[in-house]
Amino acid sequence: MEIIAFSDRIEEFRAINTEVVGCSVDSVFTHLAWINTPRKEGGLGRLKYPLLSDLNHQIAKDYGVLLENEGHTLRGLFIIDDKGTLRQITMNDQPVGRSVDET
């Protein structure tokens, strides 16, 4: 699962002065359930970066990953520089994962 892979490799991102932030349209309570469930039991376990809740879907809309008619989002990865300039966008459908190595 890519959310775990990013957490496991967080030090590589920090070494290049990069922050990782996750975001989903699930509730904070759902996030807590994922984080409080050990990985070996199908959860996320402790994450080493923040996971935001976009319950009103505004962030998903703003970044163009919300599929409003379907009620879910595409998987999006956005690289934003220290000046706030969007440098790279990757979007994938839900069943398509991404490699952290390619980030």
UniProtKB/TrEMBL annotation:
It catalyses: a hydroperoxide + [thioredoxin]-dithiol = an alcohol + [thioredoxin]-disulfide + H2O. Its EC number is 1.11.1.24. Residues 2-88 form the Alkyl hydroperoxide reductase subunit C/ Thiol specific antioxidant domain. It is an enzyme of class 1 (oxidoreductase). GO terms for biological process: cell redox homeostasis; cellular response to stress; hydrogen peroxide catabolic process; response to oxidative stress. One of its GO terms (molecular function) is thioredoxin peroxidase activity. The keyword Oxidoreductase applies. InterPro entries: AhpC/TSA, Peroxiredoxin, Thioredoxin-like_sf. Keywords: Antioxidant, Oxidoreductase, Peroxidase, Redox-active center. It comes from the Eukaryota. Pfam families: AhpC-TSA (PF00578). GO terms for cellular component: cytosol; endoplasmic reticulum. Belongs to the peroxiredoxin family. AhpC/Prx1 subfamily. PANTHER family: PEROXIREDOXIN 4, THIOREDOXIN PEROXIDASE. This is thioredoxin-dependent peroxiredoxin. It comes from Pocillopora meandrina.
